[in-house]
Design brief:
Strand order of the largest sheet: 1-2-6-5-4-3
Strand content: 25-35%
Helix content: 10-25%
Distance between the termini: 70 Å
Structural class: alpha+beta
Radius of gyration: 20 Å
Low-confidence stretches: none
Length: 186
């Protein structure tokens, strides 16, 4: 079956904003391109709604998504030695693993996957509790060139925030914050 068409805006403010987004990544990649003019390293995220059309229904489904993009050297340049190797697939996968660990999700597994905008062989699907949560990967070189990004790996993720938080249902023990500020002595 062919994919459903994008949700169309009846009265768009500009011609290039006539459809509602299905993914957060294009706006993040535009932001990365603009910020790379001023910095060598960019690591940003966005939480927002996407609009997925439903067959035979007027209104789309509006799930919340969490997307992140990382590009540039692994460590910022300093006068000390630093790791100048580029951020990549395993860096963004580490971010996703840390998030999943902090949320204490059960039955988490990573599966190889393919996506037309992502580099083949550097794409993984996150599955938690038997439900697909999202994708992690590196941007395909052709897509990177289309967004006018420099020739270096662009690591990204997009996760279904509602599905991610649905797995975080257990009560977690929290420690109270002290009402007295700490005192530091020399």
């Amino acid at each position: 079956t062919p994919p459903l068409p994008y949700v169309t805006v009846l009265n768009p403010l500009t011609a290039d904003r006539g459809h509602l987004r299905r993914t957060l990544l294009p706006s993040l990649l535009n932001t990365v391109r603009n910020n790379l003019r001023f910095a060598d390293r960019v690591a940003i995220f966005e939480i927002g709604r996407v609009f997925i059309p439903q067959p035979d229904k007027v209104l789309p489904v509006e799930p919340r998504r969490l997307a992140a993009v990382m590009v540039g050297p692994r460590e910022a340049a300093t006068w000390l030695g630093h790791d100048a190797s580029p951020l990549g697939f395993f860096d963004i996968k580490g971010v996703a693993e840390a998030l999943v660990a902090r949320l204490r999700l059960a039955d988490v597994r990573w599966e190889r996957d393919q996506h037309p905008a992502l580099h083949p062989g550097r794409t993984a699907r996150l599955v938690a509790g038997g439900k697909e949560i999202g994708l992690v990967g590196e941007l395909h070189p052709q897509v990177r060139a289309a967004f006018d990004l420099p020739e270096q790996p662009v690591a990204l993720l997009e996760l279904d925030l509602d599905a991610l938080l649905a797995g975080w249902t257990d009560a977690h023990e929290m420690a109270d914050l002290s009402s007295q500020p700490p005192i530091y002595e020399d």
